[in-house]
Amino acid sequence: MQSPVWRDMPDELQLALAQEALRRAAETLADHAEVLALEMEHGILADRGGPDALRLFAHLVRATSLDSIGAAGHA
User: What's the pTM value of the predicted model, to 2 decimals?
Assistant: First the structure.
């Protein structure tokens, strides 16, 4: 069985898949910011005031991505 080609998918499915990809990308960015903050706190990386800034960044990414992207399948 051949997998569907993007251009052959209905617009609604393309939109849902794109939204889910953006949501996952935002969550990945936020997760990485949290990991970096922990590494700074544990002395693995130099702390120059970064953990609080990274946590703020993670919070903002999560908050704005959920508000603007919405849940997949609810386009």
Answer: 0.63
